[in-house]
Amino acid sequence: PTLAEIEMINPQSTLISALQIKMQHKAFFENLAKKRITAIAFEYIRDEEGKYPAVRALSEIAGISSVLIAAELMAAKEGNGLMFGNISGVPPVEVVIIGAGTAGEFAARSALGLGANVKIFDNSLTKLRSIQRNLNRTLYTSTLQPKNLLKSLKRCDVAIAAVRGKDRAPVLVSKTMVEQMKKGAVVIDISIDMGGCFETSEVTTHDKPTYERYGVIHYAVPNIPARYPKTSSISISNMFTPYLMQLGDDGGLENSLRFDKGLRNGLYMYHGILTNRTVGEWFGMNFSDINFLIF
Questions:
Q1: How far apart are CA 141 and CA 209, in angstroms?
Q2: Averaged over 32-55, what is the pLDDT?
């Protein structure tokens, strides 16, 4: 929500939305506190297995979208004129994917389906093994060794970054490495809502999604799934419907927060009191432990 949208919310209401902390301002949280809003960030909600269902749902969409967007950008006037598709007699498009999580897996799945050569980088051997098992094929995989990564970036036509950090996405591709990429190559930085994995990444918008740096086309729009709002809405609704039904069974949000630790993990504002440590430390605001407030 924007500051203008926050002004339209009635005092003491409940807000459920994406937080996207790196895209917010301190005034956003101050306005929520002033109106004594209870706010839940759906990307912080955990399920019974300790995983983030909303993040996974949107990461699937972001991963697939990144390949579709790259295909469009390569065909544009500023692009290198290449096409996904594995056309007979034409070398396939080279795709580098940094991050073997959900977004990386679905980006790889889409790129492979379109006939591209895919190379995947991640420092987690468990994730690298898992992505090969899930895709049911042997792929080029590597840990994030700068020498190997630079070699692959020099040759690739598309580079997709999808690595989350605890508070900020790690910068894994330096400006110097981008300078050595092909002219007309495409960078899709899915991690831009957490700061971005490319040193050259700057936040863009859906209205003006790209810019060029060192001859390389950069796409760095936060919330890529918003490009496909109907699909994203249905996906999020599939995740939220059980929670809303549970709220009714529990007798309201207050009771659900008491009994559901995963839902409580998504709470960052409780009746105007900031309860999220990360937000508090990032913006220099006082915060309280939610466990002391609801019990």
A1: 29
A2: 88
pTM here is 0.84
pLDDT-derived band at 229 (thresholds 50, 70, 90) equals: very high
pLDDT of residue 295: 63
User: What tens digit of pLDDT does each residue of 236-272 get?
Assistant: 888 888 888 888 888 888 888 888 888 888 899 999 9
Q: Which domains does the chain have, with CATH numbers?
A: 3-45+230-294 (3.40.50.720), 55-227 (3.40.50.720)
Q: Which two tokens stand for residue 40?
A: 């839940």
Q: Which residues pair with 114 in a beta bridge?
A: none
Nearest-angstrom CA–CA distance, 146 and 103 = 22
Instruction: Locate 65 and state its tokens.
Output: 């979208």
DSSP 114: T
Angle between helices 53-75 and 229-250 (to 10 degrees): 170
From the number of C-beta atoms within 10 Å of its C-beta (0-12, 13-18, 19+), residue 198 rates as buried
Question: If you average pLDDT over residues 147-155, what whole number do you get?
Answer: 97
Q: 79-83 — which CB contacts under 8 Å span 24+ positions?
A: 79/184, 79/186, 79/217, 80/157, 80/182, 80/183, 80/184, 80/185, 81/184, 82/157
DSSP state of 44: G
Mean pLDDT, rounded, for 71-80: 88
* CA–CA distances in Å: residue 22 to residues 143, 251, 285: 27, 34, 15
Strand ranges across the sheet with 210-213: 140-142, 117-121, 94-98, 158-161, 186-189, 216-219, 210-213
What amino acid occupies position 213? Answer: R
